[in-house]
From TrEMBL:
Substrate binds at residues 197-200, 220-223. The active site is at 169 (nucleophile). SUPFAM superfamilies: N-terminal nucleophile aminohydrolases (Ntn hydrolases). CDD domains: Glycosylasparaginase. GO terms for molecular function: hydrolase activity, acting on carbon-nitrogen (but not peptide) bonds, in linear amides. GO terms for cellular component: cytoplasm. InterPro entries: Ntn_hydrolases_N, Peptidase_T2. This is Asparaginase.
Amino acid sequence: KGNKPIVISTWKEGINANKAAWQILSNKGKALDAVEAGVMVTENSINCCVGLGANPDRDGIVTLDASIMDENGNAGCVAALERIKHPISVARRVMEKTPHVMLVGEGAQKFAVSEGFPLEDQKLSADAEKAYSTWLKTANYKPVINIENRGHGPFAPVNLPDGSLNHDTIGMVALDAFGNLSGSCTTSGMGFKMRGRVGDSPIIGAGLFVDNEVGAATATGVGEEVIKICGTHLVVELMRQGLSPAEACKKAVERIVKKDSKKAKDNQVGFIAINKAGEHGAYCLQKGFNYAVCYANDHNQLIDSASWF
Ligand code: SD4
């Protein structure tokens, strides 16, 4: 009862990202190209949590994390990348053009520039500037649950030029017409994070994992919690043992709860997954997480994830 091709991605912004991915998948394109083009849409839009318009770290600097994986188990990642618009494409270049998996900070930026990526302005977007100056008043660091669905800044949702309120860190996984799986994940990380902090999104097996024999998964939410259980690797391994995507995501969330149920109550983590048959599923800690599922021209739909709490 699965679908092929299929693409799914995190949060409401996933709808727009899926459209770009579907364009490729529906024309017999590769899942790898689809997951790159898909999340580039989000990197290009002004939003709190992805791309150069996103919230900065505590020092006021936007630093970006991204990862990509193809059907052969190849992977590329960048972390703490500054002033580059499309970290997902730099991650892909790391995968395809270097003997390495991950480049960080200055070295990642240098590599991006050498590959022809333009060095963008350091300036914060107007929305991020506003959110940052509000944050500076208290300089209180506490991740806000479902921030991606509330808009800009951790305190008050702000209407964006396009009238939309929903923005996100984006993770995307896809199965193409040839039955191959790929995935991508890109983010500015937690808003107002410590300088140098890296989350789960650029870490293979944490924010993203693809195994072409079994399935693919990506994560969103408090990256520290995802890293500590090797979240998406766990989801894929659970699918290998026969669990459905939704069951596997639930088990991974359960692992987080079991470790520290008190802490889990205050955090959001969400997983989404697809398997080789094109079935999809999700699970999260707190209500309010959703994901976009697309497997036909007229089927690109936002689905509310079931939650532990
Ligand atoms: C991080 N997981 O840097 C990312 C943030 C995120 O929804 O996904 N927010 O921890």
